[in-house]
Amino acid sequence: TSAAYDDNNIFAKILRDEIPSHRVYEDDKTVVFMDVMPQAPGHVLVLPKAPSRNIFDADPASLSHTITVVQKVANAVKEAFDADGVFIAQFNEPAAGQTVFHLHFHVIPRHEGVALKP
Ligand code: 5GP
Question: Which ligand 1 atom is at minimum distance from the Cα of 19?
């Protein structure tokens, strides 16, 4: 079982514009912004606006829309960063590496022979 959604998590504050972010895409249900500690150039985060802590409590319709945006963003960063591939990741609960508790997908352009930054 996971904890409840915390309205004061950092991405909730970004969604409310209480903390600045570099937004690159937005629609009625989704926001995309640059990761502040990119693991490679073009590392972006895709978030549903609907409050969910992670995959476990996400609304399926919201999740479906979000993954469609992830696909668009993967194509966009591949093109924009002339990437050879795109890494997509998503963490649920601290045991799996989640540190910010609003559901998000990492989308990271990758180049042959170039390692991710730690
Ligand atoms: P995760 O929960 O997926 O393990 O990691 C959260 C991600 O959010 C990390 O890649 C981290 O660099 C990013 N992050 C944390 N705080 C901020 C912030 O205030 N602004 C932005 N743009 N990204 C953040």
Answer: 19
Encoded tokens for 99: 């540190």
Q: In testing the pocket of ligand 1, which one of 99, 101, 104, 117 has its CB within 8 Å of the most ligand atoms?
A: 99
Number of structural domains found in the chain: 1
Q: Answer whether residue 118 is part of any domain.
A: no
pTM exceeds 0.95, yes or no: yes
Q: Express the helix, strand and coil content of the chain in percent, nearest 5 each.
A: 30, 20, 50
CATH number at residue 83: 3.30.428.10
CA 23 to chain centre: 12
State yes or no: ipTM above 0.95: yes
Please write the tens of the pLDDT for every residue from 15-58: 999 999 999 999 999 999 999 999 999 999 999 999 999 999 99
List the catalytic residue out of 43, 65, 102, 104: 104
Place of tokens 């926001």: 31
Nearest to 50 by CA among 71, 66, 29, 31: 29
